[in-house]
Design goal:
Layout lengths: L11 E4 L23 H8 L3 E5 L6 H12 L2 E4 H11 L2 H10 L7 H13 L6 E4 L5 H8 L6 E6 L2 H9 L1 E4 L4 E4 L26 H25 L2 E5 L3 H13 L12
Parallel strand pairs: 2-4, 2-5, 3-4, 5-8
Antiparallel strand pairs: 1-8, 6-7
Helix pairs in contact: 2-9, 3-4, 4-5, 5-6, 7-8
């Protein structure tokens, strides 16, 4: 439901007008091509695809990313996953992040950027999809210095839908696995399916904190969205159900890279 009267908002894809910037070639550090392109199909397959997905907490980014990875073979690069791995391994950047997290503070831009730049350097020959990065204009500008993006997807989900999803969301902190009591519940209530360890509800997911959390996202994301809109690489998808948004996303990616499956998989 949305806040305009309880009706479902139909999925909608909005193509932001192209600009000249979209026609620029990717920089060398992002891997320009993999061999000579022969014909349209060859050109589609030869260029490494660089994509980003943006969306507020509860928008379904993780689900969409998994489907893109499954259907098109892109590496799903989650900033949250990399942060957890570095914290667990006690790396230098992990220890830097821990100093802020232990104080209840957000990890600053320079730490997250350093983490993600290192991960991207290790994947210079792969198609990839960034999830959770860039979150701010500072992060977007840092990414821009090493890479031209081909696609940026922004998921626009009504506030009431986000509030309902987040209030029903429980996570397994060590792995980052997310459950929703409505459409993706654990096999046993309150227990992680894989490890049998307890699930928790984050303080930020509790109803009284959701509005402030979404407002913070909107304030930080607005200049990032405007940046990619001006580049002509932004595609916005609106709706209340991931399954109805997904066919538009699949069609968009199909125009950029050949699917590895014969038909779209959910």
């Amino acid at each position: 439901m949305d806040s305009r009267g309880g009706r479902r908002v139909p999925a909608r894809a909005e193509r932001v007008p192209e600009t000249g910037a979209e026609k620029q070639s990717s920089r060398a550090v992002c891997g320009a091509t993999v061999g000579a392109a022969r014909g349209a199909a060859g050109a589609m397959a030869s260029k490494l695809l660089r994509a980003v997905i943006l969306g507020p907490p509860g928008s379904g980014k993780g689900t969409v990313c998994q489907r893109i990875a499954q259907n098109f073979g892109l590496q799903h690069l989650s900033s949250g996953h990399f942060l957890r791995e570095n914290l667990k391994a006690n790396t230098e950047v992990g220890d830097m992040a821990k100093q802020y997290l232990e104080k209840g503070l957000l990890v600053p831009d320079h730490v997250i950027t350093r983490l993600m730049m290192s991960e991207l350097e290790n994947r210079s020959g792969q198609h990839w999809l960034l999830d959770g990065f860039p979150r701010t204009l500072v992060q977007a500008e840092a990414l821009d210095r090493i890479c031209d993006l081909d696609l940026v997807i922004s998921l626009n989900i009504p506030f009431e839908t986000l509030k309902d999803r987040l209030s029903r969301r429980w996570i397994h902190p060590p792995s980052g696995r997310v459950y929703n009591l409505d459409f993706n519940p654990p096999h046993v209530h309150g227990i992680d399916d894989i490890t049998g360890e307890p699930l928790v509800q984050q303080e930020d997911d509790k109803p009284e904190a959701v509005a402030a959390r979404l407002r913070r996202y909107k304030d930080a994301a607005k200049p990032v969205i405007e940046l990619y809109k001006s580049r002509g690489v932004l595609h916005q998808f609106s709706g209340t159900e991931t399954n109805k948004i997904w066919p538009y996303v699949y069609s968009l990616f199909s125009n950029k890279i050949t699917p590895i499956q014969s038909k779209q998989a959910y």
